[in-house]
Design a protein that fits this description.
alpha+beta; two-stranded parallel ribbon
Length: about 375
């Protein structure tokens, strides 16, 4: 039987029914003398509970929520994962990254590290996973591995101008160390366009370095290049890790320092099998760039002056400069020079090689 239906089939509205109930409880003169059985039952219950009104009877009270046991299970699993990461970080990373060459870094580099990254399990790189067994496997890919700080006003530049200068500084790093054409030996026109054309010493280097490379004028001082007839990049990813920092320089210039390491997986250009030898060439560059006030220094809009450049290189070749990185493959003749053993992933010290240092082989303790 419906809430608003009489025994004889007639229908009453909710308002009439509620009025009838109130009058039945209060004993009103207009109440029917013989209400229905349902009405009598409701009236008796209302008289027995004088503090309970009709609205309370019609109101909605939420039920007690069911226990969400799924959340407890998920929380337990998360706790176990965190415990595994704390106890065995390298193994735990493999569980999630799956040794994926495109895995992003766990955290950006915002300051110089105090120690080298932990050793990885020795694993042979493959064409599908060229960074396997290397700390670079968890680094950022390309520009994503370069940390750019938040901009604030410095010297003659507003915060917005500093932000643009930082972006263009990163553009130079990308154009000089990540551009696929430049890596294949092409002239780095995009990068060169960002250098102050009035800086005579650097323009002199650029004029001769690509034609007659020498110890003093070597394009590798600023750019990463491989000879395509000899060396082929493996895959489409170059791993990077590093950061930009900035401060006020001389004459109010914005001085940007870039400290970035590049890891290039390469193989011989004349092979194409899955079992090819893969070598990782590792280059760390430190550049200091001045965005000068045009009222104090002769410059062109959108360009910077290079204050200094340094780089460390391992698995990049020895001997007289050729203008190209020359990774040592297994069948290459051994070098006559006794190289210094270095960990190319230890960035706790400043870059040790600059444009005036002698040419020395550097043997990587790992790659």
């Amino acid at each position: 039987m419906g809430a608003g239906t009489e025994p004889d089939g007639s229908s009453r509205s909710d308002e009439e029914w509620e009025r009838f109930l109130r009058e039945s409880v209060a004993g009103g003169t207009d109440a029917p003398k013989e209400p229905s059985a349902r009405a009598r039952d409701v009236a008796n219950r209302l008289r027995a509970e004088p503090g309970r009104g009709v609205e309370a009877w019609r109101s909605y009270t939420p039920g007690r929520p069911k226990r969400r046991t799924g959340w407890y299970v998920a929380g337990l699993l998360a706790s176990l994962v965190l415990l595994a990461v704390a106890l065995v970080p390298g193994r735990a990373m493999d569980l999630f990254a799956g040794d994926d060459a495109d895995s992003p870094p766990s955290a950006p580099e915002t300051a110089r590290p105090t120690q080298a990254p932990p050793a990885e399990a020795a694993q042979r790189p493959t064409r599908d996973k060229p960074f396997r067994g290397s700390p670079a496997a968890s680094w950022g890919s390309g520009a994503a591995g370069i940390t750019v700080p938040k901009a604030r006003a410095v010297g003659w530049m507003s915060a917005a101008e500093v932000e643009r200068a930082l972006a263009r500084s990163q553009d130079f790093i990308v154009a000089s160390g990540l551009d696929r054409g430049v890596l294949r030996g092409e002239r780095p026109e995009k990068a060169i366009a960002l250098i102050n054309p009035h800086q005579k010493d650097v323009q002199g280097l650029l004029k001769t370095a690509f034609r007659t490379p020498s110890e003093k004028n070597d394009p590798l001082l600023l750019f990463s290049r491989f000879k395509p007839s000899r060396t082929q990049l493996v895959g489409d990813v170059v791993k990077t890790r590093g950061r930009l920092t900035y401060r006020e320089g001389e004459r109010g210039a914005l001085q940007v320092t870039a400290d970035v390491t590049f890891v290039y997986p390469v193989t011989r250009a004349d092979t194409g099998g899955d079992d090819d030898e893969i070598v990782r060439t590792i280059v760390r560059r430190e550049l200091v760039l001045n965005w000068d006030d045009p009222d104090k220094v002769i410059t062109e809009p959108g360009t910077f002056s290079i204050v200094s450049y340094k780089y460390d290189m391992t698995n990049g070749g020895c001997g007289a400069p050729t203008g190209y990185l020359t990774p040592p493959f297994g069948t290459d003749p051994p070098s006559d020079e006794a190289g210094t053993e270095v960990d190319p992933y230890d960035h706790s010290a400043p870059v040790g090689r600059d444009d005036s240092s002698g040419d020395k082989c550097r043997k990587a303790t790992r790659s």
